[in-house]
Each structure stands twice: as C-alpha cells, then as structure tokens.
Specification:
The protein is an alpha/beta fold and about 300 residues long. Strand 9, helix 4 and strand 10 (about 180-185) form a beta-alpha-beta unit. The protein is globular. Strands 1, 2, 3, 4, 5, 6, 7, 8, 9, 10 and 11 form an 11-stranded mixed sheet that branches. Helix content is about 25%, strand content about 20%. Helix 3 crosses helix 6 (about 220-245). It starts with a strand and ends in a 9-residue tail after the last helix. The chain has a domain at about 85-285: Rossmann fold, CATH 3.40.50.1580.
C-alpha cells in the first residue's frame, strides 16, 4: 500500500519547492464544504495532499472550520497518514517562540463545534487515550533533529474555543494543569481523524508565551504572524523531511482498525442516511464482507 501523506496547515506549509505535478482539486463531502480545495502533488516519491485549514487567505475562524468535511475530504483523497501543523502559545518557560512541540496529549475545552461523524441513529465510541500515532510523532522528532529545528518531544495541547486569546486567569489555570501549549484548532480535528481511522500527529509551532509570561503579557496578531513567518521555512523543511523518512510504502497502524470495536448501534437499527454519509470515514467496516455478499 502506498503512503499518501496529508498535511493540514497554512500557506507556509504547502508552498514547497520541488513538489511535482502540483494541482488544486475540489473534493466534495457529504459533511459540507471543506476549508478549501486540496493541493495534490508528489515529493521525493511520496504522494502528498495539503489542506489549508483556514482556507487560503485565512477566511475561517477556529470555530467555523468544517472539521468533519476536512477530515472526510482527506479520507476521500486516499490519505493514509495525517500531519497537522498548528500555531500555538507556550505555557512553559522551556518552550519559547520558535519551538516545534510534537505533542502527544490533548485537553478539549471547545464547546461550539461538531465533534463526531457519528450521532443519533448510529452511535460509536472510539478510544482516545493515546490520541496521536506514535510512528508519525517519532518521525516528526527525527525530522526536526535532522533539520536542526528546535523541538520538544511530547506534551499536552489544550484546545480553547477562541477566537479571543486567553485571560491571565485562564492561562494560569492551564499552566497549573501541566499543559504545554495552547491553541484553537486541534479539537475536534484529532478526534475526527481517529473516527476516520486515520493515523494523526500534530506539530505545535510555538508563536508566543500566551499572556502568563511577565515579559510577554499580551498576545497580539502582529507578534504571532511575525513568528509564523519565521517558522514557515522550518515547517516546510520538517514536512519534507518527514515525507522522506516515511517513504512511499505505508505501514499499517492499529489506529486503522479502531472502528472494529467502536460501533455500538445494532446493524438493523442504524440510520441509513447517516450510514451513507459515513461511506468514506467508516466504509471499511460498513461495506458487506465478501463472504456474506449475495452471489
């Protein structure tokens, strides 16, 4: 099976020199409109698919992003592994702006977003104890080392609703919880990737110290954008190196089988309309098994 590496991020990530046969294509989804067209191409022999999370020109807020359509579109595009690149604030002194943190845990504090492909008429509960793919995360760490990018392995990403930045009280609360970084887009993206049986890992690109740091007591868009521009080159280097390390051959992950033990609604009670919308994300378990199909 071939690797098809999906990259979710901004323009600094997908503007890659050496991307062969680049083409933008609209991928339709029964869950609505994805954030943008998808950019298809090949780099170092690896097929890649880029999705601008906020749309080109940054037109979607963290709360208006159609996360379900985005993940569904990546699945329909044949993506086998997904890497998310996300700007974040740091909640720890040892994670200064410019650091790339390969987080391995999440706390979800969002409240205004659709968080599941499943629902009334077709219920499923996927495990999220270990929300990132260890192989993808380790590949990102190796890529950062190879490119000389300042990085950190592991950590907890707390996802807030936004679009406003934190109050000082909130920032101090999240620090007391032991969180490493704070952002607005990892949730429900990571949860939906798991429901779609899609191995997923996230790179938290630190742009600021949130507002807890005495030397950085206010987050501004200008300051964040300045660091984002400085991080863009490293982000491109990171995903390109990760593609080379992963290589063109895809190695199966247990994550690709999570729905085997997650579906709880009896087959004869499942909502057929909802089941039809799940053809991409859950098609593997919904398609009739060859041994039971009629002749």
């Amino acid at each position: 099976m071939k690797t098809v590496l999906g990259i979710i991020g901004g323009s600094g990530v997908y503007d890659i020199a050496g991307l062969e046969n680049p083409r933008w294509e609209r991928v339709k989804s029964p869950w609505g409109e994805p954030s943008d067209e998808l950019l298809f191409g090949t780099y170092a022999g690896v097929d890649m698919v880029f999705l601008p999370r906020h749309g080109r020109g940054h037109v979607q807020t963290p709360s208006t992003i159609n996360y379900r359509a985005n993940i569904d579109a990546l699945k329909r595009a044949g993506v086998t592994d997904a890497i998310s690149v996300s700007a974040c604030g740091s909640l720890k002194e040892e994670l200064p702006p410019g650091t790339f943190a390969m987080v391995d845990q999440f706390i979800d504090r969002t409240f205004a977003r659709e968080k599941s492909f499943f629902g009334p008429g077709f219920v499923a509960h996927v495990p999220m104890a270990h929300p990132v793919c260890p192989r993808l995360s380790e590949t990102l760490v190796e890529a950062a080392k190879a490119e000389g990018i300042k990085h950190a392995k592991g950590g907890t990403y707390i996802c807030m609703e936004g679009p406003q930045f934190s109050t000082l009280a909130e920032s101090e609360l999240y620090r007391s919880w032991g969180c490493s970084v704070i952002g607005m887009t990892a949730m429900p993206e990571a949860k939906l990737a798991r429901e779609a049986e899609l191995p997923y890992a996230l790179v938290a690109m630190v742009t600021d110290y949130d507002c807890w740091h005495p030397g950085h007591d206010q987050v501004t868009v200008d300051a964040v954008v300045n660091v984002l521009h400085a991080n863009a080159d490293n982000a491109r280097k990171l995903v390109c190196r990760a593609a080379k390390l992963l290589g063109p051959e895809h190695f199966p992950s247990p994550i690709e089988l999570v729905l085997d033990s997650a579906l709880i609604t009896a087959p004869d009670k499942r909502d057929p309309k909802l089941a039809a919308k799940l053809d991409a994300v859950a098609g593997r378990v919904l398609r009739p098994h060859p041994s039971t199909s009629s002749v």
